[in-house]
Design brief:
The chain folds into two domains: about 70 residues, no CATH class; about 40 residues. Helices cover about 35% and strands about 20% of the residues. The protein contains three helices and five strands.
């Protein structure tokens, strides 16, 4: 993938890298995830990968790689992961899950069509 203009890409945890320096993204497997860790980002000039709190699809989206509405999909997957993890631990916060679900659904809503004035 060729990036036309380099831009700063937010990785989470207060980290930013130039889009033209990222050469690989590696999703962190479920057993290694935790504390917001989602993706290893390999950056030219840095020997070890940086850990990002964002998914590889979201990072690719920010870099200009369009593969559908990945931000929405990532939000839905994060919500589902949170629910599954909370259920396994026996502590499901329905209020938080409800707020997150409403926010995700609101981002998909189309604006209400207004009637023409004339």
């Amino acid at each position: 993938m060729t990036v036309a203009t380099a831009k700063m890409i937010f990785l989470g945890f207060g980290k930013y890298v130039r889009s033209d320096r990222i050469y690989a993204l590696e999703p962190i497997e479920a057993g290694e995830r935790g504390s917001g860790r989602r993706t290893r980002v390999w950056v030219e000039g840095i020997p070890d990968p940086l850990v990002a709190s964002r998914t590889e699809r979201t990072i690719l989206h920010d870099m200009g790689h369009e593969a559908g509405d990945t931000v929405l999909l990532d939000g839905a997957l994060d919500l589902a992961e949170g629910l599954a993890a909370a259920a396994e631990e026996g502590r499901v916060d329905l209020g938080d899950l409800g707020r997150r679900a409403r926010k995700l659904l609101a981002s998909t809503a189309r604006p209400a069509e207004t009637e023409p004035l004339f």
